[in-house]
Request: fold
Amino acid sequence: MAVNKVDVYVSQIKELLDQGYTWLEKDNLGYGSIENKYGANAVQIAAIRKHPKLKDLETNITIFNVIDDIDESTSLSPKQQRVVRSTEILEQPMVSLDDNNTKMGSNTNEAANIFAQL
Reply:
């Protein structure tokens, strides 16, 4: 029986995970896997992951989110664009409730019309 000894350094594993390597080949995101790099199988990877400094480490990947902040339909750059705010003041009619008024006539209709316009 031949036994192959492979030295696996914690710092190397951490660096590979930071470069996007996954632990297992089946989870490979296109950067590679530690399983494939070291020629290990899933059981051996599970044993490596039990090391206290490796047990909670996971793959780190950088995702670039490209945001197009240039609107080609205007000639102004985003820094030159201005926000225009309306200075128009909307006036709402005042409604007063008269406790002494017992008539349910025009005041009720007037109040209903005011609320309908809101």
